[in-house]
Amino acid sequence: NAGVMQNPRHLVRRRGQEARLRCSPMKGHSHVYWYRQLPEEGLKFMVYLQKENIIDESGMPKERFSAEFPKEGPSILRIQQVVRGDSAAYFCASSPPTGKYEQYFGPGTRLTVT
Amino acid sequence: AQKVTQAQTEISVVEKEDVTLDCVYETRDTTYYLFWYKQPPSGELVFLIRRNSFDEQNEISGRYSWNFQKSTSSFNFTITASQVVDSAVYFCALSEETSGSRLTFGEGTQLTVNP
Prior knowledge:
The complex is a heterodimer of chains A (114) and B (115).
Chain A: E1 5-7, E2 10-13, E3 19-24, E4 31-37, E5 43-50, E6 53-56, E7 65-68, E8 75-79, E9 88-95, E10 104-105, E11 109-113
Parallel strand pairs in A: 2-11
Antiparallel strand pairs in A: 1-3, 3-8, 4-5, 4-9, 5-6, 7-8, 9-10, 9-11
Chain B: E1 3-5, E2 10-14, E3 19-21, E4 24-26, E5 32-39, E6 46-52, E7 59-61, E8 64-69, E9 74-79, E10 88-96, E11 104-105, E12 109-114
Parallel strand pairs in B: 2-12
Antiparallel strand pairs in B: 1-4, 3-9, 5-6, 5-10, 7-8, 8-9, 10-11, 10-12
């Protein structure tokens, strides 16, 4: 059973470009979470999604950030017009329908904005 | 509001020493879950343990043990006979039932085990 997959593992973008981070949950998992880890800091919750629904986006910055989890395909975290402060590791986690407190993390995507 | 505090930013020990990582949490919920994760230098997050608020039994897994005390809102993690491979950042996290399932992480403790 493959774990949570994230790609790309490393992403470099220039200021003003768009960044798209992908997360494929574990098989059978229908809940996806995104967290951000800024340099030298802990992880901060961003958004919680189920298929085709955003359940909790209380941690998402108000502008430039969006997330989706379509019926088919991976969850996508999109950052428009990236700035240097967006440089961080972005982690995705997934959980099964009946075990939302069991979150399994992917390896993360390290975004560098130059 | 939920909060997790890991007061120890960095700990350095010599191999074979025992080390305890502290975690103090704040929550108004009666139902909540506590977690420990390990983040080795490679960067991934490794799940170590989950406990719910109704289960105060301490747990031991090999060289790892956890001491959950609701009276002091603490969930401390002890590594016995530490090894160099234990060097990592360790995060304590909390999830409240009323806040959905999002995790609130502490700031992490960087553990360095020297040979």
